[in-house]
Design goal:
By secondary structure, the protein is mainly α. The chain has helices at residues 12-21, 27-46, 59-71, 83-102, 120-123, 130-137, 145-160, 164-168, 202-214, 242-256, 264-277, 282-289, 294-297, 301-316; strands spanning 184-189, 195-200.
């Protein structure tokens, strides 16, 4: 069948295959694209545009969809979508249009979709102070196997700045020979299939050792769900999921009384912020975090900007006689 004569909504599986084979994107990224595009397809159907072909998509359609996103209200809370959330839906749609371009299917160019500016409040990087980090790390009950595992997870997040998907992907064999090691440099495959090195501190490594000492399972995964039923057909059946990791962090955030916004990504922000306050330059932090562009890392300049203001206020706040 001529691909250009196939309705837009019927191209999803081909787009996801393209993401996997030609773009080398991870499963999580593909799932996210699918999730965000489903709303676009829902809008097409609700507007009776389910038969719309790629070349029939116009900027007016895009504008109507953007209005839909802007005015969409959650059925339970009645809240509208944040600008940052609308951003994700449009990024997915741009990637989808990019697939048409790559396949020589006539369609609206991706750059015709401009991204909304985030609200100032949404641009603020949320991070924890070292005192709050310490409260969070020490809140796990290390008398239980799951508590020891959780402590190792929390320590690893702050020590390495790993993304949650990178953390869940860690395997037992990568930590099989820790006996005489006080720190660890580990090569991982990060976002977009990009390799980088992450560094485990002596402290984080000591908690991983304690966790592994009580773990009896031979599962491939490093961090496992102790209550999961073993499925011989699925070697990852006990691997903690990203959602499980989020619940673990949220649990200890509540227990320790630190800000409610705390997530695994908050610890990544806290890791980067701590490095910056210690004088590490942005280029190095970019390498640690695995950012492709220094522009992404520049969200942390709020720390240096505040420090410069404080220094100016301290040493130049009073007029000299």
């Amino acid at each position: 069948m001529n691909q250009s004569l196939k309705p837009i909504i019927n191209h999803l599986s081909d787009f996801l295959d393209y993401c996997e084979v030609q773009k080398g994107l991870r499963d999580n990224t593909q799932k996210n694209y699918k999730f965000y595009l489903e709303k676009f397809f829902f809008w097409l159907r609700s507007a009776n545009l389910q038969s719309l072909l790629p070349h029939q998509l116009t900027q007016e359609h895009i504008w109507d969809y953007r209005l839909y996103l802007s005015r969409h209200q959650d059925a339970k809370t009645g809240k509208t979508l944040k600008k940052s959330t609308q951003h994700y839906y449009l990024i997915a749609l741009r990637a989808f249009l990019g697939y048409f371009v790559a396949k020589d299917i006539l369609c609206l160019p991706p750059d015709k979709i401009t991204l909304p500016r985030a609200d100032k409040a949404e641009k603020t990087v949320k991070f924890l102070s070292l005192e709050q980090i310490e409260k969070l790390l020490s809140s796990a009950n290390i008398d239980s196997p799951s508590g020891l595992r959780d402590r190792a997870i929390l320590e690893t997040l702050f020590s390495t700045g790993l993304r949650i998907a990178e953390l869940t992907a860690l395997n037992f064999e990568q930590f099989a020979n820790l006996k005489n090691k006080e720190d660890l440099e580990l090569g991982i495959i990060g976002k977009g299939g990009t390799p980088r090195t992450v560094y485990f501190s002596n402290r984080a490594l000591s908690w991983i050792k304690k966790y592994l000492a009580i773990r009896k399972s031979k599962d491939k995964a490093l961090f496992i769900n102790f209550r999961a039923k073993k499925d011989d057909t699925n070697i990852n059946s006990s691997r903690l999921t990203s959602r499980s990791m989020e619940r673990i962090v949220k649990k200890y955030a509540i227990l320790s009384g630190i800000p409610f916004f705390t997530t695994p990504h908050t610890l990544r922000h806290s890791y980067a912020t701590d490095l910056l306050t210690q004088g590490v330059d942005l280029r190095t932090i970019q390498e640690f975090l695995g950012h492709k562009s220094i522009m992404t890392t520049q969200i942390y300049t709020h720390v240096t900007n505040k420090r410069l203001r404080d220094i100016h206020k301290k040493f130049h706040g009073l007029s000299h006689n």
